[in-house]
Amino acid sequence: MQCHRLVVALVLVISQGLAGATNSTSAEAWVTAIQMRDVARLNVLLENGFVDINLTNKKAKTALMVAAQAGDFPLCSALVTAGARINVKNENGGTPLMHAAVGGDPEIVSLLLSAQARTDTAAVNGWTAAALAAAKGHVSIVDRLLRAGADPNLGDIFGWTPLMHAVEQERRETVALFLRQPYIRVNLRNLDGVTALHRAVAQGFREISRMLVRAGARIDLPDQTGRTAVDYAREAGQIEILKDLGG
Predict the structure, then answer these.
(1) What's the pTM value of the predicted model, to 2 decimals?
(2) Domain 29-118 - what CATH class?
(3) N- or C-end of the chain: fewer Cβ atoms within 10 A?
(4) What ranges do the domains of the chain cover?
(5) pLDDT tens, 224-244?
């Protein structure tokens, strides 16, 4: 009898040790998958019953962030259902919604918004999900963010707004979407006093320049050095734009 109890106790100790080793191994594999952005491995681990889904790597990046940027909707959905933290930030202030805005999958953005993702959270550099999507030209994502209440006038730490980022990258459809918003402030200036129109003119984006002017962009606003849109056009040798501006 005593021998039987000893065997049972030994089996329990061994099984608990194996379980602990398995959990430790799974956690290590999870973090490694995050580090490597390996969504396939994350899927396998999740399917095999891994539950510590909010575990992060050293930079505070989560599996949901990886899945969102990779555009893996099924994995994102499974993680959200399993209780993934929606508004968590990595060391740069990035959220799952920001990663989704970069990734370009509108359905993932909608999933996160329905899970109460905050639209106007800013990263360390001041960029929001709307600014990231605007710079990438993900117009459908920008549209969903705006419909969810995102503020298109929020500037980053240098005063650049989502509209400015869209102009800078020549994202015409995204610019047009912003200009249709009744509360857009087209004449905002960054820390250098530069407006969206200044940047459009300087780079020779004639169509965008016309769109901005039609939306109320002022051609007389000076930057910190006193240069107006006309000056930018003249300096850049943009003759056609200069004619449009009456210069």
Answers:
(1) 0.89
(2) mainly alpha
(3) N
(4) 29-118
(5) 999 999 999 999 999 999 999
